[in-house]
């Protein structure tokens, strides 16, 4: 008789009705898998908990939380000393939940159960970044699965972390972007890739594997999770009025026709700036420029309900 596979849930510690959720997971998954629940208690906890689960021989990982929890589980998984990372699933219970928008993943544990049992997963690309840590003391590395960006996004992320939960996701991100546009000044940068270079003053540069960020804004409409490329969205000198005027188009996923916005593609790039600029990865502030980015093709298996989503083709 084959031994049941082990399934480890890495759950954000501030998840509402945690006991109710765990009981539901036991009811849905308990007859098919050996279950393991690990609850975060502080920032970066999910990285350590993921590594512990892998060390103890788990077969599957499920990130339960928002984009930050997914980011940490991905980093714990990919930084673990193994030949092949284990497949991951996501139960989206955070504020933004932007990665799952590209993948069509819902807050449906039954759908996830079916995907795992039927081994329905996508083999997706992952981004790899080297940059200066938040204290500017040393160079560090991290993976991102959705979007990394410099400038405006890094500042907005810092603001979101101190925003009250009762505002809701859309209003929280909207206010953070508006406040960041008010406070942030365009800075001079240089982007170098094997095929092209860019020099200029920018508010932000997004390196997009997925299309969505900031709670449903389609910043990179052409981004694919399976093409081995990042879509680089270069945002020049724009202001609050530009953002407000184009927000409906961003929500609809339209490519913006704007003199200060450029859409380019790259497998890798280096970004240098005259002054250190904040970096956000998957909704988490991580450090400062300069940075080096490389896309790692087909690096991670992630369970999805539908393999025909546009970002997977």
Secondary-structure-derived class = alpha+beta
- Tell the overall outline: globular
The description of the largest β-sheet is: 11 strands, antiparallel
The domain count comes to 2
Q: Tell me the CATH topology of the largest domain.
A: Tumour Suppressor Smad4
Label the CATH architecture of the largest domain.
Sandwich
Distance between the termini: 38 Å
Give the averaged pLDDT, no decimals.
95
SS elements, strand count: 17
Nearest-angstrom radius of gyration? 19 Å
Unreliable parts: none
The succession of helices and strands, N to C, reads EHEHEHEHHEEEHHEEEEEEHEEEE
Structure commentary:
- The protein is α+β, with helices and mostly antiparallel strands and 313 residues long.
- It is globular, with a radius of gyration of 19 Å.
Layout: helices, strands, pairs:
Elements: E1 5-11, H1 18-29, E2 33-39, H2 45-55, E3 60-65, H3 67-78, E4 88-92, H4 99-103, H5 109-117, E5 121-133, E6 139-144, E7 147-151, H6 152-160, H7 169-183, E8 187-192, E9 197-202, E10 204-208, E11 212-213, E12 217-218, E13 230-235, H8 240-252, E14 261-266, E15 268-273, E16 278-281, E17 284-303
Parallel strand pairs: 1-2, 1-3, 3-4
Antiparallel strand pairs: 5-6, 5-17, 7-10, 7-16, 8-9, 8-15, 10-13, 11-12, 13-14, 15-17, 16-17
């Amino acid at each position: 008789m084959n031994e049941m596979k082990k399934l480890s849930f890495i759950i954000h510690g501030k998840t509402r009705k945690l006991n109710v959720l765990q009981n539901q997971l036991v009811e849905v998954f308990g007859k098919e898998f050996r279950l393991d629940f690990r609850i975060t208690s502080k920032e970066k906890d999910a990285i350590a908990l993921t590594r512990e689960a892998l060390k103890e021989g788990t077969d599957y990982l499920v990130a339960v939380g928002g984009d930050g929890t997914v980011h940490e589980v991905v980093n714990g998984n990919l930084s673990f000393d193994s030949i092949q990372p284990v497949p991951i699933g996501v139960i989206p219970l955070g504020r933004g939940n932007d990665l799952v928008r590209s993948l069509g993943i819902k807050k449906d544990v039954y759908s996830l159960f079916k995907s795992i049992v039927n081994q329905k997963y996508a083999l997706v690309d992952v981004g790899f970044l080297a940059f200066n840590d938040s204290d500017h003391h040393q160079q560090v590395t991290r993976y991102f699965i959705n979007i990394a960006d410099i400038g405006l996004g890094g500042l907005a992320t810092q603001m979101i972390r101190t925003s009250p939960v009762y505002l809701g996701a859309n209003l929280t991100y909207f206010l953070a972007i508006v406040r960041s546009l008010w406070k942030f000044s365009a800075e001079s940068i240089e982007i170098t890739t094997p095929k092209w270079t860019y020099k200029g003053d920018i508010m932000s540069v997004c390196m997009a594997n997925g299309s969505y960020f900031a709670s449903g804004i389609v910043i990179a409409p052409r981004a694919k999770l399976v093409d081995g490329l990042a879509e680089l969205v270069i945002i020049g000198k724009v202001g609050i009025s530009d953002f407000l005027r184009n927000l409906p188009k961003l929500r609809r996923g339209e490519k913006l026709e704007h003199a200060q916005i450029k859409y380019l593609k790259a497998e890798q790039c280096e970004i240098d700036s005259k002054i250190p600029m904040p970096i956000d990865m998957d909704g988490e502030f991580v450090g400062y420029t300069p940075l080096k980015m490389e896309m790692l093709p087909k690096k991670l298996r992630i369970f999805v309900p539908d393999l025909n989503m546009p970002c997977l083709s």
